[in-house]
UniProtKB/TrEMBL annotation:
Domain (Glutamate/phenylalanine/leucine/valine/L-tryptophan dehydrogenase C-terminal): residue spans on this chain: 177-383
Source species: Streptomyces bingchenggensis (strain BCW-1)
Protein name: Valine dehydrogenase
This protein's pathway: Amino-acid degradation; L-valine degradation
Taxonomy, superkingdom: Bacteria
Residues where NAD(+) binds: G213, V214, G215, K216, V217, G218
GO cellular component: cytoplasm
Length: 384
């Protein structure tokens, strides 16, 4: 296997956080890699294993708080320009996002992320995953990998055969398994904090909550909300997902699509499907006073966080409230203890409230306040 370490520069604190700046795609990867205003990453590893067809990028944004932790995305990058360039940019942006997420989750981990280039349906083999594991292992623990889009618990079990710095494994292989249980629990805590900030009590009792996407995370969230006394309305492009929820909880109502959901009379909107849920079309149409959900990268472009604030809608930053999953995989590294991980995920309530307080004090949207708090923790970690 060939290892190319592109750079290993010490971390500099970014002035702009990841909020609304997820894709500085007008820049080249090398500009993003070195420029502190776009990230200032520590290290990038380009990996190729000809025998298995593996091409991968491992990006370490920061190890200021500890070993970089973040998942492995397996994606085809059908870019009109060069797919490799798109993959590097994705890895850089995702790694940077993980630094912020891990910092605010209170984890002693920096941010990193890997991407494997190619269609997982076509090229994912045991040989390829083992080769990938050897590359992650070559970093000697500076980067700890886990699942992301296109990789699953079973894949991490394979990677772990070559690499001890692998988490998100199955219980049979000594791991914690599916992370959606604690992700949903963390989103619920963020929603309770949002209720406290909006209506003066940390409960969704009597509130109408609309969930777009009732997959792994969304359906667990339904259960928390019903238990808390909320009225729940859901939508999903997959009829089976809705039917599963309605079979277990007949009191839940369903609407045809996300557009119908956000225009219906809601107190809280919970995007739990794909990224980009909040854009120039959806924000003006929202009836909800609170947005809090599991989906990653909910803000479609920079400025949406301000549009939400201008409309008096409280936005609980996605990467803060959906950190239950990364809290789980970080705990697994110490021998998984569900109660310990759940206690840590419960702190998402306090963190979300602290972000709202900071936003009010600084006169900025909560998404920007989250970035500031994360940068503060990274800077303190570096000094310690
Ligand atoms: N699983 C985790 O632990 C975790 C952790 C952090 C963040 N997230 C994020 O949370 C979101 C949900 O994750 P998940 O694990 O539940 O995924 P999932 O694939 O199990 O569920 C997503 C659901 O959304 C539905 N969906 C897709 N497009 C839709 C649309 N346009 N309108 C309505 N429904 C739609 C799908 O049919 C599916 O049922 C994703 O954005 C994911 O990145 C998940």
């Amino acid at each position: 296997m060939g290892v190319t370490t592109v750079t290993d520069v010490r971390h500099t604190v970014s002035v702009d956080g990841p909020t609304g700046s997820a894709a500085p795609d007008s820049s080249s990867a090398l500009t993003t890699l070195f420029a502190s205003d776009q990230g200032g990453h520590e290290q990038v590893l380009l990996c190729q294993d000809r025998a298995s067809g593996l091409k991968a990028v491992i990006a370490i944004h920061s190890t200021a708080l500890g070993p970089a932790l973040g998942g492995t995305r397996f994606h085809a990058y059908a870019s009109e320009t060069r797919p490799e360039e798109a993959a590097v940019m994705d890895a850089l942006n995702l790694a940077r996002g993980m630094s912020y997420k891990n910092a605010l989750a209170g984890l002693d981990h920096g941010g990193g992320k890997a991407v494997i280039i190619g269609d997982p349906e076509q090229i994912k083999t045991e040989e390829l995953l083992l080769a990938y594991g050897r590359f992650v292992a070559s970093l000697g623990g500076r980067y700890v990998t886990a699942c992301d889009v296109g990789t699953y618990v079973a894949d991490m079990d394979v990677v772990a055969r070559e690499c001890p710095w692998t988490t998100g494994r199955s219980p049979e292989a000594g791991g914690a398994g599916d992370s959606s249980v604690l992700t949903a629990y963390g989103v619920f805590q963020g929603m309770r904090a949002s209720a406290q900030a909006s209506w003066g009590a940390p409960t969704l009792r009597g509130r109408r909550v609309g969930i777009a996407g009732v997959g792994k995370v969304g359906h667990h969230l339904v259960a928390h909300l019903l238990e808390d006394g909320a009225e729940v309305v859901v939508t999903d492009v997959r009829a089976e997902s809705v039917e599963r929820v309605r079979a277990r909880h007949p009191e839940v109502t369903a609407v045809a699509d996300t557009d119908a959901l956000i225009r219906s009379d809601l107190d809280v909107y919970a995007p739990c499907a794909l990224g980009g849920a909040l854009d120039d079309a959806t924000v003006p149409a929202l009836t909800a006073r609170v947005v809090c959900g599991a989906a990653n990268n909910q803000l479609a472009h920079p400025g949406v966080e301000k549009d939400l604030a201008d409309r008096g809608i409280l936005y609980a930053p996605d990467y803060v409230v959906n950190a239950g999953g990364v809290i789980q995989v970080a705990d697994e590294l110490h021998g998984f203890d569900f109660d310990r991980a759940k206690a840590k995920a419960a702190k998402i309530f306090d963190t979300t409230l602290a972000i709202f307080d900071r936003a009010q004090a600084d006169g900025i949207p909560p998404a920007a306040a989250a970035d500031r708090l994360a940068e503060q923790r990274m800077a303190e970690g570096r000094r310690a």
